[in-house]
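QA checklist item 7 of 12: single-chain prediction sanity check.
[x] sequence parsed
[x] length recorded as 284
[x] structure emitted
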Amino acid sequence: MERWKREYDRIVVPDCVKEKMEEAVMRAKETKKRAKRRKVYRYIGSAAAVFALMLILPNTSRTAAAAMQQIPVLGDFFKVVTIREYQVDEGRYQADVKVPEVVPEDTDNVSEETAQQAKETADAINFDIQKATDELVEEFKSTMEEFEDGYGDILVDSEVLTDDERWFSLDLVLYQGAGSGYERHRHYTIDKTTGKKAALSDFFGEDYVETVSEDIKTQMRQRMAEDENVVYWIDYEEVPDWNFTSIAEDQDFYVNKDGKVVVCFNEYDVAPGYMGCVEFVIDK
């Protein structure tokens, strides 16, 4: 390696070649400068575009403007937190209970009246959740104490089904098992523009019971005609008392992500147990 270096140092570069090499180096430097200037210009242009975008967005998108200014939008009106857990794992008895609570927050961009109404609505929902959960847990505890050789399991969980700028819908899942299982759902929907709990009459007027009931009957018959495995208790001649006639005045429902009302029935309410909990989208 050292010998090669000495031989390389002894190489004599002709003047004409040397001049061409120097010219090439100068051209390379100039090209590099121009490229650097273009890069700077592109950076300035990009920065200007970003700045222009920042000026435009607040005027064209309320959500984007709120995000940049850290202003809450109605999508952040409510949050759900787990306030209590109850766990049992004793072989014959299993319990997995997570009790949710609806909490109004980021109410700075709504009126004081709406914020107060939202708090009252959340308190009423939380009371109902606590009551339903406590009843299930107490029954489970009583069964464990009374029947040591028995078995059973319960589950309480929740899921936010919709949370957009208008609607907030929460699903409370209540499951109880002892030999066979029984699953129930309780839904809570809040109109964020008013802070009030939504009612079916808000969507279908004073005659909502008849309107919604007839729509559901039509859907039941259509589904059974399309699939022989689908069974609802309607037009059921063997046990007429089981037939679905109408929804309850306080019928359970929620608003889905498309803004449509979904009426819900628990197991055995309007169909055999194998059908599970059934739902009907009221699209009128």
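[x] summary fact logged: The first strand starts at residue 78 and ends at 89.
[ ] second reviewer sign-off
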